[in-house]
Amino acid sequence: MELPRPIFQSFYDKVVKHIQIASEEVSQDSIMRAAKEKKYLAVKDGEKDGITVSGDGTWRKRGFFSLYGIVTLIGYKVGKIVDYTVQSKYCKACEYWKKHADSEKYAEWLEAHKLERNVNHEGSSGKMEIDSAVEMFKRSEKLHKVRYAKYIGDGDAKTFKGIIDSKPYKKFNVVKKECVDHVQKRMGTRLRNLNKNNKGLAGKGKLTGKLIDELSIYYGLAIRRNSDSVEKMKNEIWASIFHKLSTDDEPQHDRCPPGEDSWYSWQQAKATNSLDQYTHKPALSDEVFEAIKPIYEDLSSEDLLTRCTGGYTQNNNECFNSTVWALAPKTMTSGKTVPDMATNIAVSIYNDGFSTIMSILEVMGMKIRPNSYNFCLEVDAKRIEKAENSLSEAVKEARIMSRSTRKNKMDENFNLEGQLYGAGIAD
């Protein structure tokens, strides 16, 4: 009863709008500096046609029904956002006034609302990524005086096709590059689907979850280790599968790199003259090999591996997406202003660190005191320390071991219990 009355909605809206304008100003300045930095690195690396960017979209809700989506382009190597858009197909004010379309005030309101309308996307939510990418490619020369020569995509949407069809640079064709991580995921997904649709392949000694993970990792490593040569990629991809087929009586390691430094243990043993002490692990069955062979043939095609040259990834985009939704959780509902504001702030933090919060406060006319300054520096220092720690070999090995242990446990349970849950399993 005695609590003070909360602020009026109108005043709250003014404050939020003020933050949105200030954060947008700082974020736009940030992407301009990021683009200049990327252009400098591109010239230094001999990229004459333009710069390489990775693109990805993220949505407020899972599935294809989200009202809001965010799409970013990140300069490769520099690892900073050079452009972004926030897409919306919903406006609360428009929804309200639709019910009063016959009133005298509607026409007057509509004219005044045109500049403030929150809807900037027509069509499905999935199309947001395509339309945004096309828009950003078309404005790159005007915004940054540069072309986006290579586009790193994940293959989850027809974004690249949309870019090509729009012809943003007239006579110049943008080159598609694959995200190696997503290509590796394709191998895992297809092997799991094969296992799911062919019950005879599942079970101990066959196509287990652990084996699928191993084959996927070997496939990804073959691409990353040989990102400068399609021929070497293909050779090592097949070397990994023939390595699994090898037995003591019939070793098949001709494709494996020789020498003591080889990552194939058999070749190491051969180089050190200790083959008499070497014992192969249980080999992959011929049944499993014949089943997975078409998948390997498809995912080692020259066309796909050519797009994998360079070893590009979209890790930066995925990291940024999590930064946005940490500021504006997907569990909370809001209008477009909140995703706008969260994206502006996230772009600034992602590109230049948490200290950019002080820049936003300065634009808003606020004075920066020592406590605020020290807090921002402390947050940045902790973030860097955490990132460096996660990259240490010990932490990496612990993560791999943890995943492997979970997979083994799942396989053991499946072999013991069989499939107990699934669509239509009780019929």
From TrEMBL:
Coiled coil, from the record: 377-404
- The reply to whether Cytoplasm figures as a keyword in the UniProt entry is no
UniProt keyword Coiled coil present: yes
For this UniProt record, the keywords arranged alphabetically read as follows:
Coiled coil
All residue ranges annotated as the Mutator-like transposase domain in the record: 9-263
Under InterPro entries, the record lists: Mutator_transp_dom
Task: Please give the PANTHER family that the UniProt record associates with this protein.
Answer: CCHC-TYPE DOMAIN-CONTAINING PROTEIN, KERATIN, ULTRA HIGH-SULFUR MATRIX PROTEIN-LIKE
What protein does this entry describe?
A: Mutator-like transposase domain-containing protein
